[in-house]
Predict the structure.
Amino acid sequence: MSNKKTLRWVITHHPVELFKRTAELFKQELEKECPNQFNLEIYTAGTYDNKFKNHPEFRITPPNIEGLEHENDTKKILGEEVKFNKLKNFKSHDKWSSFFKALKEGEFEMSQTQVNIVGGFLDKNYHVIDLPFLFNGHDHVSKVLDNEIGDEMGESLASNTGIRGLAFTYSGGYRVIGAKKGITTISDLSELKLLTNTAHSDELFNNVGANTLRKHKASIEDVADFNNNENGAVETTYLRFSGKNVLKTQHSMFTTAILTGDKFWNTLTAEQQAAFKRIAKVVAKEERKWSLQDAAAYEANAVANGVTITEINKSDLAKLQESAKKVYSNLDKIGINKNLVDRIIASA
């Protein structure tokens, strides 16, 4: 009889194909370091409920942003039809509270989840990674997230919530603004209906005259109006975008965290725990590299695909950077420890 532990790895968001590669690499590396000790099964939240029939709330999704961000469709990725529930009153709190409770209690063992979701539901200090213009490049990201600061954030999360952060990956890397119409300058934002990812992105763009509509607060009527509005735009990344016009702002990093629950973690031997930590960092670095390669390919193929990418000009970049100073003056409101910000900036 096999004594292998089964690891259920649940991917929670797009681009699914990117995170599927990450989970598959984790599986390969785990077999090398801990041979014949683990099986790993990969799910999305929807395919997980398809099999186990225990969390229909995992299927709750916000309304689609038609013509901008990719829709929730896992059929091509995991070979399974999933019916999502686009509820009139989308309650992200119900979905994510249930999701994190299930991870904590060991109903599944591993996940990759957006850092802004972790910050919103588990630990506000995780919002630090989303701050505008915090990192001066991808090497700085690696220096922070793959070393002492990243390790401390993962351990602190475990101490406070029972959910452990193992490593950080990209959800496409740098954020950009994708739009239905052509957008070339910051002043164009005043004529757009812009969906952002976080409260501090909301503040960043409101300060320069944008008309923002927080995605997670939008009612079905708001999004229906948004979808009918030719001036719609969204804060996104290349890999999440399906529209035709991009303003390349590169104002912050869109990242994810590889997570596990301490209930499961505490069943592992010390050797297995050390292996999980090493492997998570190895695959996180590789996944971030894949994201950058995919982004470069997106840019290289943009013209052929009918996509117009406009790089933000120096004057507008200065305006956004000045706006960012106001965001940093409100760290207490966000719930971010200023010392953590200072350490990240000093590590560059």
The chain has a mean pLDDT of 88.
